[in-house]
UniProtKB/TrEMBL annotation, chains A, B:
Span of the signal peptide: none
Transit peptide recorded as keyword: no
Annotated positions binding ATP: R221, D222, E223, Q230, E488, G540, I541, D542, R543
Organism: Arenicella xantha
Domain Aminoacyl-transfer RNA synthetases class-II family profile stretches: 142-561
Keywords: Aminoacyl-tRNA synthetase, ATP-binding, Cytoplasm, Ligase, Nucleotide-binding, Protein biosynthesis
Main location as per UniProt: cytoplasm
Protein name (Swiss-Prot/TrEMBL): Aspartate--tRNA(Asp/Asn) ligase
Length: 607, 607
């Protein structure tokens, strides 16, 4: 059987001059020039210029009918391009091929958008995803993604990790988001859940003695997709035995550093800084600071406790309040009154009731050198102490947050990011770091109950085991998050490997023995049979590839993503199903869903 | 933070003599010998002998409490084993370590079965899968599986394939098995389906111009698990553009040949034989013959048409009948009357109403030399012709099947396999092959409608396009199956890449335009926009690893498999869920399922 091509387009070069080749690909562009037809033929390897002369009668007749995106097979002789027509931007730019035969393998209707068009709506891109993916940038992204996952596998296999698949049809897992459920046909009234992560299975694999496991695992969360989330996403899931957190962090750091070096030729720092959760919150208001941004939060809570100004002294004296400053060097001249007002609106989104600020005009002039609606409310001593602590200089602008610690941290962290962007303050391209020493628990503001900051299997610091019951709010965990440019790339921890400690953790979380047994009985069982000390991490592949590709949305790095409404515009999933299918699965639609479905069907029939 | 080990157990060898190491692992065995305690310490790398002398007072006290499968951290000095106690079977068998400190990292309750126990029930193995996986054979299987998938990736990346993930939450796909459904919370009354394969997505990726795609993809089928099937299974999914079937088969053959060479050091044949579907059915009664078995079916239909013996002449003269012989060399003396009767029962399972046979005692004696209940019913001419055609020799035994072709093929193919096993006829260890030239369609015996032998996207032979409408039953497809030892390893085809051909195929299958549009509209759309000629293949990873591991069940090569009743004995999935979860998903249980759930709950409460 004859081959459809002897060479890929991008491989045709000067070494082939005077030989006859056959190539196949898409007509990217056709132009007629002086009675001769030129076709830019594109395949996955690149572009090749095809010349069709009227002397090649049959080929010319075919070429004359060729439209953009037709699929062609071309038999042609390779020749050097005439002087002055070479194109050094193209690997094939020194040659062209002179067609003797053209075969249209498939035609193309006019495509709904041009491949080099910039502002195609996302809805159109997703509906015609197979055309969107033809675009050069998308081709690059998915080839990069493939290289990234291959790199991770190469690295981990070399370190003796074993790739093991865990179930997709499984039991509800404890990450806390909503599960996707799958009705069982065999077991009436029962459901599988799609995994939010392979967490428990990977711990069981450690009990099984594999010592080093990895998987590039699909995970599922049925959440409202306000943020840049997807119902299904992919994580690089890793678990190890007999390694402590330092060893795990070192190895993962090397893995990420080498990834950037090998796939992007980027040098990340030889050592990623490690920062405690407490320091991150204190200095950045957030547990994933963007260290490219030089701005820092400075607490002035203690300096304003005695002030009459209730806006400051109120939060300063409440148990959960915080007053913090954010100094913008030279901000006084860089930010207009209108811009400052806009920032006040902006922090309102994060619960702040206002945005106090001081323009530092002339420090030596004392109170008179400070321009601000709030200066009159603060004592000389407080103003002086604040200016000293934030290391103010003439021309600076200092923003303040004063509220519950949560509101201050959320709003100033967001303001810091926004200022960094608006004022182009970011230094360097890549700023990786680790955040460590997280609290084990945080109090749910609604229920007042302790919840896990990571998950219920995270181990507490070894010297705080006693406090698990007596003072859970004080216990730090053996967790670590890798942060890059303000985004969490991955998070992990040493896990609890002893039954009694796991039970104490459950107790602290208000999970009683019966619930623990029902939900996690198999884990508690497993910990009884020689579970080794173990810990791991999971990286968000979609996010990593998006950052490496310089795109904002993970939808751009997922071949067939869902919309923010969790539907697929290409296949029209989800969709209605036959009643018999539901009957086989022992389920019925709720009355309102049934009504909605009936309406849709009638609409379909009447249209 | 102190490391839990300086070396892995299997790495401790003579080069470390006199150095102090720390090792961690499981106490595989403890024995007391002359007042000294010996512990075989096991980690993923191997076994190490730990010696604990009463002189090491603290370590000895701890060692005295150690039970099997306790997890230990041991600090010890490496020394040569005393003469006469070395063990050349172990990589660490020349040394032992003399413990100075032992730390029990975790205890183990007595385990429910011993790791070297042979006849543990599968139910117990699956419930305690984390212990079952600790067994040496299981560790080997999953490390092999990881190497196999890694090998595939290495091979394909080197050939410019791009690894692309396709959705798990998607639309019902056309493989024909029952779908697993996932109710949508956002779109009331609508459902996602879990993919039976990425077939349509991989074709769309070809339309997108990726040219070479692969994925190790999870697939789902909600089937009754009578055979060795799993609700979720894994396939190596491959698709290419601009390659014809010969090129694809050649490349895949190389991939599988190199896999066996690299991972098992096994040489497969330099060229896999290719056999048409028609020949396979004619000679083996099945489209996946085990070529290690030298027995072949021989048609004698034409020889018995004129016979009075209705058992033979009936099927021979019916349109769908077949009379075939299966000669067993030297079978006359190797098979007793009782065994032959058992085979008659056996073929009954495949619909055969009996199993005629002839013992060839003395060919030269003609009819008198043939011993059989049926000889008297056949003419001399027929007997003579049959003996000539099957190339009978004295001492042979010839079985016959006479019925519809389907019953004859099914029953003799099964008999052939069974005889091959029972009489140890198999030659060689590995017999790979290709089956090609499949029919496009087969007639469903119930509905009388044409159905796809592969799937509706399989391309017909180029020279039979015209017959798609006029004579579909005659059209062969461009499909190919790779078969190894009677098992289908993988199957694929060149796909239809033109809208009009795809529509004709749908029409032949009785899929009208509206149904085609509803189910596959996005594919038909995509084919309109410059779809390249493309084709691919999918290999069953579970089956390949099972064969390479020498285990019968794919449950042994899946870390956390489901039972034949599609449940997980470890996690107890599927299980009941809260009413609120169902309400969120706009579904209710059917009345009977609700009753079943209530009964289960009451049982739980009263127990």
């Amino acid at each position: 059987m004859k081959a459809l091509r002897s060479h890929r387009c991008g491989e045709v070069n000067e070494s082939l001059i005077d030989t006859v080749v056959s190539v196949s690909g898409w007509a990217q562009k056709r132009r007629d020039h002086g009675g001769v037809i030129f076709i830019d033929l594109r395949d996955a390897s690149g572009l090749l210029q095809v010349v069709v002369d009227p002397d090649a009668v049959d080929a010319f007749a075919v070429a004359d009918t060729v439209r953009n995106e037709h699929v062609l097979q071309v038999t042609a002789k390779v020749r050097a391009r005439p002087e002055g027509t070479t194109n050094s931007d193209l690997p094939t730019g020194m040659v062209e091929v002179y067609a003797t035969e053209i075969n249209v393998l498939n035609r193309s209707d006019p495509i709904p958008f041009q491949l080099d068009e910039d502002d195609v709506s996302e809805a159109v891109r997703l509906k015609y995803r197979y055309l969107d993916l033809r675009r050069e940038q998308m081709q690059k992204i998915f080839r990069l993604r493939s290289r990234v996952t291959k790199y991770f596998r190469d690295f981990l296999e070399a370190e003796n990790f074993v790739d093991i698949e865990t179930p997709i049809l499984t039991k509800s897992t404890p990450e806390g988001a909503r599960d996707y459920l799958v009705p069982s046909r065999v077991h009436a009234g029962e459901f599988f859940a799609l995994p939010q992560s392979p967490q428990l299975f990977k711990q069981l694999l450690m009990v099984a003695g594999f010592e080093r496991y990895y998987q590039i695992a699909r995970c599922f969360r049925d959440e409202d997709l306000r943020a840049d989330r997807q119902p299904e996403f992919t994580q690089l899931d890793i678990e190890t035995s007999f390694m402590n957190e330092d060893e795990i962090m070192d190895m993962m750091e090397t893995m990420i550093r080498d990834l950037f070096k090998i796939t992007l030729d980027v040098e990340l720092p030889a050592e990623f800084p490690r920062m405690t959760y407490a320091d991150a919150i204190e200095q950045y208001g957030i547990d994933r600071p963007d260290l490219r941004n030089p701005l820092k939060l400075v607490s002035v809570t203690d300096l304003v406790k005695e002030e009459d100004f209730k806006v400051f002294s109120g939060p300063a004296n409440s148990g959960h309040g915080r007053v913090a400053a954010l100094r913008v060097p030279k901000g006084s001249s860089r930010l207009s009154r209108k811009e400052i007002d806009n920032y006040a609106d902006f922090v309102g989104n994060y619960g702040a009731k206002g945005l106090a600020y001081i323009k530092v005009n002339d420090l030596e002039a004392g109170r008179d050198g400070l321009q601000s609606p709030i200066v009159k409310n603060l004592s000389d001593a407080a103003l002086n102490d604040i200016m000293l602590r934030v290391e103010a200089q003439d021309g600076d602008l200092v923003f303040f947050g004063a509220d519950t610690a949560k509101v201050v941290n959320d709003s100033l962290a967001a303001l810091r990011n926004k200022l960094g962007e608006d004022l182009s303050l970011l230094k360097g391209t890549w700023a990786p770091m680790w955040v460590i020493d997280f609290p084990m628990f945080e109090k749910d503001s609604t229920s007042g109950r302790w919840t896990s900051l990571h998950h219920p299997f995270t181990a507490p610091k070894l010297d705080q085991l006693d406090e698990l019951s007596s003072n859970p709010g004080n216990v730090l965990s053996r967790a670590y998050d890798m942060v890059l440019n303000g985004t969490e790339l991955g998070g992990g921890s040493i896990r609890i490997h002893q039954t009694d400690v796991q039970k104490q953790a459950f107790t602290a979380l208000g999970i009683d023995d019966q619930e623990a047994e029902e939900k996690f009985g198999f884990l508690l069982d497993a910990l009884r049979y020689g579970a080794p000390p173990h810990g791991g991490i999971a990286f968000g592949i979609d996010r990593i590839v998006a950052m490496m590709s310089g795109v904002d949305s993970i939808r751009d790095v997922i071949a067939f993503p869902k919309t923010q409404k969790a539907s697929c515009l290409l296949t029209d999933a989800p969709s209605g199903v036959d009643k018999t299918q539901l009957r086989d699965l022992h389920i019925r639609l709720s009355a309102s869903a049934q009504a909605a479905q009936n309406a849709t069907q009638e609409e379909g029939e009447s249209s």
